[in-house]
TrEMBL record:
The chain crosses the membrane at residues 27-46, 53-72, 78-97, 118-138. This is SPW repeat-containing integral membrane domain-containing protein. InterPro entries: SPW. Residues 27-133 form the SPW repeat-containing integral membrane domain. It comes from the Archaea. Keywords: Membrane, Transmembrane, Transmembrane helix. Residues 1-22 are annotated as: Disordered.
């Protein structure tokens, strides 16, 4: 079932009609936001190198805020931001590959047990966050209003 959107005359932002965005997008955005929060706090649970600490804090915090912003948009009746969720997907992918790129550690077998826990946590959380946010961005891009040319009213 496709949903059409209208532009709010005051802000120019697309508002979802009566039904709003699908409830799944709202809750998936909340889950992705919680994944970002986990990524931000996980270096304090696992032993982490200074570079990984800052990587997790910055990227995890950005994922938390951006996905939370999308959750806020959907909760207040605005359409899902496909651009924001696409950026979240890219940041989550970075969390996966950063385990191998930062500090020149291209193999996890040389890491100590606590660092391995953080590395695997980042890989799994990054994969899950990237998949969910990419799905949200994909479904947001599919709800294009029919019957009007792009950029016209």
């Amino acid at each position: 079932m496709s949903q059409s959107t209208t532009n709010d005359p005051a802000t120019g932002e697309p508002h979802a009609r009566e039904q709003g965005e699908p409830a799944g997008q709202k809750w998936l955005s909340g889950v992705v936001s919680l994944i970002g929060l986990w990524l931000a706090v996980s270096p304090f649970i696992y032993e982490a190198a200074q570079s990984m600490l800052w990587n997790n804090l910055l990227i995890g915090g950005a994922i938390f805020l951006l996905a939370g912003y999308n959750y806020y948009r959907i909760t207040n009746g605005y359409a899902t931001s496909a651009g924001v969720m696409s950026l979240v997907a890219l940041l989550a992918l970075w969390m996966m590959v950063s385990q191998f790129a930062i500090d020149g550690q291209f193999a996890m077998d040389g890491l100590e047990a606590a660092s391995q826990g953080l590395a695997w946590s980042n890989v799994v959380s990054g994969l899950l966050g990237a998949a969910l946010s990419a799905y949200i961005a994909y479904t947001a891009g599919r709800d294009v209003p029919r019957g009007t040319a792009a950029g016209t009213r």
